[in-house]
Design goal:
The complex is a heterodimer. Chain A has one domain. The model of chain A has no long low-confidence stretch (mean pLDDT 84). In chain A, helix 2 crosses helix 10 and helix 3 packs parallel to helix 5 (103-125). Chain A has a two-stranded antiparallel ribbon with strand order 1-2. Chain A is built from 12 helices and 2 strands. Chain A is globular. Chain A is 77% helix and 3% strand. By secondary structure, chain A is mainly α. By secondary structure, chain B is mostly helical. Chain B has one domain. Helices cover 73% and strands 1% of the residues of chain B. Chain B has helices at 4-23, 28-50, 59-77, 82-87, 98-127, 132-150, 171-198, 200-210, 212-217, 222-248, 253-256, 259-273, 279-298, 303-317, 321-329, 347-351; strands at residues 162-163, 250-251. In chain B, strands 1-2 form a two-stranded antiparallel ribbon. At the A-B interface, helix 4, helix 5, helix 10 and helix 12 of A face helix 6, helix 12 and helix 14 of B.
Amino acid sequence: MLENLQLLFVWAPIINIQIILEGIFVGAVFALSAYGLALVWGVMNIKNLAQGDFVIAGGYMALALHYYDVPLLIIMLIVILVMFIYGWLIYVTMIRRIIDQDMFVSLLATFGLSLLMQQVMNLIFGPEVQTVDMEMPVYDFFDNMVTVPSSKILSLILAGLLAVAVVLFMKKSRTGQAIRATSQDPRAAKVLGIDTDRVYAFTFALNSALCGAAGVLVSIIWVIQPFYGITYSVRTFAIVTAAGLGNLPAVIGAGFGIGLFEKYTGIIFGTAYEVAAPVLILLIVLVWRQMLLKKNRQVVQ
Amino acid sequence: MIARNDAYIYGALGILGILGPIFFPNYTLSIAYLWMMVLMASTWDTLGGQTGYNSLGNITFFGVGMYISAIVQVSFFYEGGVGEYTSAMGSIKPVFTESQYFIGLGLGILAAGVVSVLMALVFSSFMFGLRGPYFAIGSLGLAIATAEITITINYVGGASGISMPLFPGDIEFRSTFFYILCFVFAVAAHFLLRWLYSTQFGLAINAIRDDEDKAEAMGIPTLKYKRIGWTIAAFFMGCIGAVAGNMAGFIDKEVAYPIPTFGIFMVAMVLLGGKGTLWGPVLGAILFHVIKETTWTYLLNLQWVALGLILIVNIVYFQQGIMGWLQSKYPESFGIAIDASREGANVKSGETI
């Protein structure tokens, strides 16, 4: 551990640039799926534990399409469309029935969905770790100390474009306005003629599409495996609990933060801790928030 | 006092428990797992159903208990120590005499229970400030973090796991022995919880479930009661973890921390049977086990898909569970008075079912 620290800060500080870049690349993906979760959580009070599996499903779709040499942009569009429809179907069959229920019910029902999706993907694509090779040029800097594949830069740009598109959509379009109105007060929205059921369906479908897009990016810059979903779910939960609902800049910031934290723990403590890192940060965030709340707590002695 | 209905159920379960392994010796271990699941569901319900704190992390104590008992059992009689035993990757097979093995096992189970209790006490100092879904997610995080940290410890074998001492005796005696252990623990847990729910403790934790702030305002020391509830669950989970580790014979992360399987099954079983009732978890566990074994046998490769579907259908379409459904269908037989003029006298017995 000490040697790793020395490597980072004494022998080759240039590696820091590489780690920071990696953290930013994966952080963008985390932020994208976390924004989707913040949306469904804030609007319809559903805690989607299958979030990570939506991401992985998008990744596998990209993998299958790439096999037939479909260009990246078309892949993106197809995946977004398919995942949108999939999310709508899931809403109609499952989420609609648990929307008014106890909060724990949504957690458990979506865990069941997560289990189901994992297994179906495992049956179709097999348990191997896979990745999409875009065969794009790799740039080197500082005597090969820092390597930046152009596919990662492309994914960062795509993530940024998607985020901008979603924000504009939420701000400007009628549907976006309806979603925001419903999240503020569903009853009033209903009275004013907004079909809240449709809004919920659309929100969930939008979340699913965002996750799918994040999954396409993951399959390009990282690896996918049927059972990796749960770690993405945990990460998105950590981001959303840290950033709060409906606070997009904070979600993006927390996404990059968790990406960096994870990469640094992986380098300093060894890769074995890389999975534990997001979970630990989730626990730390929860306990820290709770300590902040404790200040407001008054006990009559 | 045991009501007549309960006496029938105890009779039926007792017959299954005692005669099951005698008439179906091939299924002894399967029925042992059934009692293990009954125990898991019942102890989960103490915190989840009765107190309203839905934990997804009770499985932590299961795994910790497994590892603790492994350490105790190996270190107690193998002079080389645990580190040497695990670094040899199972090539060292120390031969224990019968008395050595059973004393080691007993101490291992005890130590597993005690360490789990201590861990629950530590966890509860910072976990119980979380409420609702945050507690569920936080405890799930706890389980994942514990599992990931366990496999980085080389002392207990790291990612490659640790094999348990060999059982001295033939295979039939082995399965009967572990069967009895599981049965005894399940029965002990059931009667302890039954007694606890009938005391002031039961009323207090139900008050916490219904409205924690009001309960606190009424002077109930909520943290203490929540802590006791989790500690009981932790003790039994630790003990049964130790037993399960010895039953499996080899433990690693997948065996010790089955978060996506048993960790979720126990919640699903309680929901299937009915949350917050004494009999719900037992019934749910039995039904779930039967469904699970059937799908395992007849739907090979698709068993996990089937289980995910069952979980979704159960939670989305059948939330109240069997006991809840029975209660709303036949309220009189549960002692719940519908007629307003008769209420009061029977309400308490309805609450504790």
